[in-house]
Specification:
By secondary structure, this protein is mainly α. It contains 12 helices and no strands. Helix 4 runs antiparallel to helix 6. The C terminus is likely disordered.
Amino acid sequence: MSGASPLAPRHDQARHWAKRYRTEIAASSSTVCSTLIAFPLESVKTRIQSYPDGFISCVKKIWGNEGPSGFWRGVLAPLVSVTAVRTVSFSVYQKAKYKASSFIGTVTGKEEPLLVVNKPGSVPDISTVACFGMAGAAAGLASTFIACPFELTKNAMVISKQIAATSVGANRNPIRSSYQDKSTFRTAKQIVSNCGFFGLYSGYRLQMIRETFGTAIYFMSYESGKQLLVKYQGVNSPTSPLAVALAGGLCGIIGLVSTYPVDRAKTAYQRACLEQGRGRPALVPRVEYFKKASYQGLSVAAARSALTNAILFSTFEYVKKRINALPDPHERRRAGE
């Protein structure tokens, strides 16, 4: 008599569901891996954006005041949120790019962009870039609602000690010292207590602009970069490991640089909301491109983004390729009927 639970999924069922949801499985597992590895750089970047400082100085302060664990302070919120956001984003993107490809093919009367991309030796053109951009924008827009409260909670945890340090003397304010030494859930609860439920969506408009515009550029850069690298490598596989890693790192930098002033304005605005509590700051920080102050902490953020996305896409493509190689018993049964 077998000791296995009748409720446990059979191996053939597990393989079938893995293949059906391969994008979601690959996106979530690769996000967990890349987030944990690169989070210390994300933590330093957030602190520099909120309270301008040098990289070395910031690292020393974290190490001296909080110890090694300070570099991973607030990691749970982005681990949950970024995994959810990326899973939604990649899932929407995969579906949207086929819709966009079909739409562009119908409107132009030419070959669909995705058919062009999959031809060996092909290079990016207007139709392929537009296809990936449209799908990326849809993915970014879809993920904003989930991303905003989690990212605000993460920021509150990361800069909690810096916010509290401003609550002294004439500036003493109990709200500013209320975010210290709290778990992810308790920090979110404190934000609701201080700012109301919709306080979790402070900076939503700036977040939506960043996600929509940034994700469009992100996927355009990744897909086009990978296509060019595969061509010049002279390989037939569209998921060559070297091309995937380099394109991933490249799209991380390009996507970041293109939206960095928006991200900095959003972070500054969210910090002001956290410090003030209910109500809104009188002045929303301006999004200013090509000004030195708007790129504070960019080098740290670029290193973090390149590392994160090289790991993310390498793991994503590897996991998806392994799942695709699994035999699907449902397909075998249909073929035998």
